[in-house]
Amino acid sequence: MTAAKGAERYLPENRSLRSLAAAAETCQGCALFENATQTVFGHGKAEAPIMLVGEQPGDQEDRAGLPFVGPAGRLLARALGDAGIDPATTYQTNAVKHFKFTRKGGARRIHQKPSRTEVVACRPWLLAEIEALRPQVIVCLGATAAQALLGASFRVTAQRGEPLRLPAAVDVRLESEPAVVATVHPSAVLRDRSDGHVEAYRAFVDDLCSAREAGMPSAS
Ligand code: URA
Ligand code: SF4
């Protein structure tokens, strides 16, 4: 057997979100499935106009099998509300679908950043989710998501909040192009305990507002 690496060969023929989620449960496209509890696929309505892409599930997401149910998810939900976005109008997913961690002192599992190779291995799921969902706007939460879709040299700090398009190199078949807006990861806002915390939160909400506006059909 050819040692095809990555998730591609696990993709089902039927590309509905439901069928993708079922197929992803048995993905072994990279080594991350080995230590994680389960695949954490995207979650939300199939008609959601706004797609939110995080980095990877965290400890609580790994146990629950759902994205953004832990502390970062709670901050995200609050920021969405403050940006005038009903969380029910979002589909939430991650660039990488398995939790990557190291163990510290036995029980505690410490989040580890996924490698570029792991992000690339998992990307077929993300692209298939985009094709199935056909969102009006994709919000990249943090550098891992942004670089998965906008290229390895993309810098969130330089272009956060700007309405962008998917580069031609991203192979998705869509009738209408979604807007793409990159911002920081909600855990970065959560970790910011400096005097700038309020400002960091406000800037995050501002970027989500830009995403909401970018996703609205242009008034004519
Ligand atoms: N952080 C992420 O990037 N995704 C989650 O689902 C949870 C925390
Ligand atoms: Fe498959 Fe992605 Fe999990 Fe790797 S992280 S095993 S590519 S679902």
Automatic annotation (TrEMBL):
Keyword Lipoprotein: no
Signal peptide: none
Gene Ontology terms for molecular function: 4 iron, 4 sulfur cluster binding; deaminated base DNA N-glycosylase activity; metal ion binding
Pfam families: UDG
Domain (Uracil-DNA glycosylase-like): residue spans on this chain: 41-209
Entries under InterPro entries matching the protein: UDG_Type-4/5 (IPR051536), Ura-DNA_glyco_family4 (IPR005273), Uracil-DNA_glycosylase-like (IPR005122), Uracil-DNA_glycosylase-like_sf (IPR036895)
Superkingdom to which the source organism belongs: Bacteria
Alphabetical keyword list: 4Fe-4S, DNA damage, DNA repair, Hydrolase, Iron, Iron-sulfur, Metal-binding
Biological processes annotated in GO: DNA repair
Keyword Ribonucleoprotein set for record: no
Listed transmembrane segments: none
Similarity field: Belongs to the uracil-DNA glycosylase (UDG) superfamily. Type 4 (UDGa) family.
Official protein name in the record: Type-4 uracil-DNA glycosylase
